[in-house]
Design a protein that fits this description.
It contains six helices and nine strands; from the N terminus they run βαββββαβααβββαα. With 192 residues, the chain is α+β, with helices and mostly antiparallel strands. A hairpin with a 3-residue loop joins strand 4 and strand 5.
Length: 192
């Protein structure tokens, strides 16, 4: 696997100014006064991106997102989930559309052909370089988006829900999605 990424995205109407560096440090990342985090600013949109322990938090006016790239362990699920809940609770009153959990893999063509998943992929049309398939999962759908470019495959598994509440935020969707990914792609590709 060339790269593995996990992310949580919540789409809605957010006041990104709520997520000041001081607020993110204290309320999202739970840092003490002397705690450290990275801060980047997108020069085009003037939006912040905050980083702590390999996890990036990107608050915007249309979405809030947590991302971690080159992930090798499921141990990141817990802090990402906690940071997401902290960020969401700062604006739990805001209108939202949906939130989703994503696990993405990038691999070369030869590695892809060895996957148990390759048999499912045969049913996904790549006519324009990408294809999509939905699988039912606990009354929700897992989207599988497959793209092929530059002799590499990108496989993105997405579990989306449109009902956000304190109860759904407390469910372990990341762990459940990871178990479904293992069933589809094989145990070696799930995060341990």
């Amino acid at each position: 696997i060339m790269e593995r990424e996990i992310s949580i995205v919540c789409i809605g109407t957010w006041n990104s100014k709520v997520y000041s560096p001081k607020t993110v440090a204290k309320e999202v990342f739970n840092l003490q006064a002397d705690g450290k985090m990275g801060i980047n600013i997108n020069k085009d949109t003037l939006e912040f991106q905050f980083e702590k322990d390999g996890i990036a938090f990107k608050p915007g006016s249309n979405s809030i997102e947590l991302i971690s790239s080159n992930v090798n362990s499921a141990s990141l699920f817990e802090p990402m989930d906690r940071y997401f809940k902290n960020a969401f609770r700062l604006q739990s009153w805001a209108p939202f559309v949906a939130y989703g959990y994503n696990i993405k893999f990038i691999m070369n063509k030869n590695e892809f052909s060895l996957l148990p998943f390759a048999s499912i992929a045969n049913n996904i049309s790549l006519a324009k370089g990408y294809g999509m398939r939905k699988l039912e999962f606990k009354n929700q759908r897992i989207g599988i988006i497959l793209t092929f470019a530059n002799n590499n495959y990108t496989i993105n598994f997405n579990l989306e829900t449109r009902k956000v509440s304190e109860k759904t935020l407390d469910e372990n969707f990341f762990f459940e999605l990871n178990e479904e990914v293992k069933k589809i792609m094989g145990d070696n590709y799930g995060l341990q």
